[in-house]
Structures are given as C-alpha cells and as structure tokens.
Design a protein that fits this description.
It is built from five helices and three strands. By secondary structure, it is α+β, with helices and mostly antiparallel strands. It has a three-stranded antiparallel sheet. The longest helix has 13 residues. The radius of gyration is 13 Å and the shape is globular.
Length: 96
C-alpha cells in the first residue's frame, strides 16, 4: 500500500471518533486485506462489542466493506465471523 493514502475523506464524513480510529487502522495496517472485527478492535484498544457499531458506520458511509464468513471459532465450533476491509477502489487508488 502506498504511503500517500489520505485521511481527509474520513475527516469530512462526520463519523464518530471510534469509527475514525478503526478507519485509520484499516488504512495504515490492513494493506487492503480482510480483517476480523476482533483484530480491528484489539488494534484500537476497543472491545469487540465497542467496535461493531463504528465498523457498521464505516460500511454505511462507503468507507469500508464487509463480508460474513462461516468458519471455525475459538471453541472449535463453526460460527459466523464478520470481516472488514477498505473498498477496493480506495486501495487501488492509493497504490496508483
């Protein structure tokens, strides 16, 4: 990912502080890859529950995209996990 990624769109959207922190994590650390809600929450010193609303806020603003994956959980049971990443247009535009 390019170091020329701009945070100005996030500043202009009127998003919450937690959503901005999570957006910064996606921009600076995710390299455009899918990240779990828990990974993003841990990186921003939030709980899983505290990060879900702000991540949904980013998705609604078009600043992130999400997918649900049915995979093995920590306790050995299959469960749904939600992953987030920057929209591919954002990642491709930043690399140009």
């Amino acid at each position: 990912m390019s170091t020329r990624t701009h945070l100005a769109p996030a500043l202009a959207e009127g998003i919450s502080d937690r959503a901005f922190r999570l957006y910064c994590y996606l921009v600076l650390e995710s390299d455009g890859e899918w990240v779990t809600v828990q990974d993003a929450a841990d990186a921003c010193n939030l709980t899983n529950h505290q990060s879900r609303g702000p991540l949904s806020e980013l998705r609604k603003q078009g600043m992130a995209e999400s997918r649900r994956v049915y995979e093995m959980g920590r306790l050995g049971r299959r469960t749904w996990h939600t992953h987030f990443r920057l929209p591919q247009e954002t990642v491709n535009g930043a690399a140009a």
